[in-house]
Amino acid sequence: MKKEIPYKIYLSEAELPKAWCNLRAFMKDKPAPLLDGATLQPITLETLSKIFCKELAAQELNDVDKYIEIPQEVRDFYKMYRPAPLIRAYCLEKALGTPAKIYYKFEGNNTSGSHKLNSAIAQAYYAKQEGLKGVTTETGAGQWGTALSMACAYFGLDCQVFMVKCSYEQKPFRREVMRTYGAKVTPSPSQSTEVGRKILHEFPNTPGSLGCAISEAVETASKTDGYRYALGSVLNQVLLHQSVIGLETKTALDKYGEKADIIIGCAGGGSNLGGLIAPFMAEKLQGKADYRFIAVEPASCPTLTRGKYAYDYCDTGKVCPLSKMYTLGSGFMPAASHAGGLRYHGMTSTLSKLYDDKLMEARSVEQTKVFEAAEYFARIEGILPAPESSHAIRVAIDEAMKCKETGEEKTIVFGLTGTGYFDMMSYEKFHDGKMTDYIPTDGEIEKALAKLPKI
Amino acid sequence: MKKEIPYKIYLSEAELPKAWCNLRAFMKDKPAPLLDGATLQPITLETLSKIFCKELAAQELNDVDKYIEIPQEVRDFYKMYRPAPLIRAYCLEKALGTPAKIYYKFEGNNTSGSHKLNSAIAQAYYAKQEGLKGVTTETGAGQWGTALSMACAYFGLDCQVFMVKCSYEQKPFRREVMRTYGAKVTPSPSQSTEVGRKILHEFPNTPGSLGCAISEAVETASKTDGYRYALGSVLNQVLLHQSVIGLETKTALDKYGEKADIIIGCAGGGSNLGGLIAPFMAEKLQGKADYRFIAVEPASCPTLTRGKYAYDYCDTGKVCPLSKMYTLGSGFMPAASHAGGLRYHGMTSTLSKLYDDKLMEARSVEQTKVFEAAEYFARIEGILPAPESSHAIRVAIDEAMKCKETGEEKTIVFGLTGTGYFDMMSYEKFHDGKMTDYIPTDGEIEKALAKLPKI
């Protein structure tokens, strides 16, 4: 007899993962390597170590080891806010009247309000191990900046955050949370870097973007002694650390004899989705099990669904290495939507490759439809979701409603990456009927793609 | 051999309480009864049922049944956000270098951001059972209003919230969260009630207070068909529902063979503290075990430490029954401190009686010292605490430091009632060095106490 499934599955400390799952190591066809911007050759560990601390640079290039041990200090920190619960959405299922079983992995029960802390603490740990003074970073919605501030406070590192200007303005209290953890926060683009000044000169009224904040953070790290750069998404190392989401999810499902049919996650740079699907995709790649994976992106920044698979810069200022990925072009300036964390022109190379190989699907959704789903979910399941996370809710509900039509009892698992407590200005716009959708024209996308580097 | 204690103890669904613990039923010397304002006689079930729905009125008067079953629908809702974790503060212990063992029961992992949801869902359930259209209420810091909004959304009830004006202004996004759950929010005092207009006439620039918002909510409920009033603290029924906090805490400690020495909680109206201590105090009253209990209140509103034990009105407008309690006088207008949830002139009658009988201690602390503790705690334990909750953190740290001096290995348990995500304006003041302390003079308190009803 199957065990009765509780509303919330919490693993015990003993069941927490001891090693991260390195998805790329399971791929026979590897993602294309990062290229050095100066030589256009695959980047070396040495060059990469000028940007990231050594251990992280090594993880960035490691596509061989299937599992990488989680350091004890990081596991101890994980214990402060993990395991994250895997929640059976009994109330949502009932409200929808669907025969589908819906689960969501909730990563919002920590002060950063999201999954970002999973990688922040690992990156801060390695920086501390290497004897660095501090790190610089960018943040969009603010979760990553908060997460890194928390991690740096824990290990006694300095933390400098470049925050995308429109988020800085939409989320005035985020800055204060980061300050509580001792970080210095600068709206981006800023006058404090060369690349910031250049972008401001070209686009004086820009709301900023992740790509542009990244450039500023990298420049600052490279020009300051004892500092390295830390990034909250896109990178292989981040996907690696985020695999703790998928590993816990899989252990919890296995424990109750449940098998997922569809796994859904929002995708900006791809870190949450990459982490969530890691052990499941590893099974699929080994022919051990089959799953459908759906990446959900905003219609205003449709990287996978309307972008091109090509080498491109990871940042607007072109100071980072090049990555082969689905991209809208590093010059694409996404509209100031309410899902700041998803306003990124590219997609992590691993997910790009899996999508190109048709191992994963993608869908884009408009933000008004996303907020409809968010409010509906909040009233039924209690949790107030972040706009980014609500992209996954939207598609999970759509898939559950398809099951209602067909009568199929599918098991749907989605990642609920975080909470929306700092997004109330966005919810207010939605309540007041003032939220609009913005879908870029083909012409806009073509124009940005025309500037892709010729490689 | 003792089991190894994890960072976080989560009970299983099967271990969740099936009945609330009614602390008063364990007391030989009962708290004095509520008095009817019109007759000055003990209030009857009939009269009380005009304010509260019947089942809640019955719970309010029940000092006989030691345990009261939790309805299945309420238990199902509890499963959506409970069990709340009991967290072993390993990192804090290490940072303080104390031999004390520190535990905290964290109630912030739900959208209301606090323990308030425990009673909100019970009150909404009984209102729905009785066929009401909706409920009215007051809210200070906003947690209670959010909690009741969530509970009403779940059961399809209308919800009207009077929010203390200074909190309404300090926490602009709280209103939007309540709106997400469909509630109507009015800053108090308002022009929409008789009592509100009267108070505004007398004190045009008042920042408002809980006592005054209560009066407006009660008046609105009594004048609207199909509505009753719901209150988030002070009442016996609320302490009853909040006993889930203490019951879970005790089960978790017992499971690991731990015995608390000191139990600490912040106290505004007393609901969190009353709930936390319920099963422990029940043991103490039966001579089964001994504990020290410490109520922590703001120095700006020192109800227990500087108030008088006497019959007083529960609200500024004197529309509620009278309660024998520690009070600063219903006319006392507390300074607009940053712990809106603790700005209440009185204290629940049960805790007042226990304090008067010397079964519990009390301590008052200044808000700058509270924010120092809050920030320290956030950086070490990760969780960003609410200012209210941080009162308990302050005293827990103080007690742990005493253990460091004496070398005693005491076990300290405190209630971490909620998160501070909506308190960033207060944190900002603290960071900028602009936060001041306000301690009422003896003259101010005497003046308010002089107006106590002569009973």
What does this structure look like?
The structure is a homodimer of 455-residue chains. Chain A is an alpha/beta fold. Chain A contains 18 helices and 15 strands. Chain A has helices spanning 45-48, 54-61, 72-81, 90-96, 117-129, 143-155, 165-170, 172-180, 194-202, 210-223, 236-255, 271-285, 303-306, 349-356, 367-381, 387-406, 424-431, 442-449, and strands at residues 8-9, 19-21, 67-69, 86-88, 101-106, 134-139, 158-164, 184-188, 227-229, 262-266, 292-298, 308-313, 322-327, 361-365, 411-416. In chain A, strands 1-4-5-15-10-11-14 form a seven-stranded mixed beta sheet, with helices on both faces. In chain A, strand 6 (134-139), helix 6 and strand 7 (158-164) form a beta-alpha-beta unit. The radius of gyration of chain A is 20 Å and the shape is globular. The mean pLDDT of chain A is 95. Chains A and B meet through helix 3, helix 6, helix 8, helix 15 and helix 17 of A and helix 3, helix 6, helix 8, helix 15 and helix 17 of B.
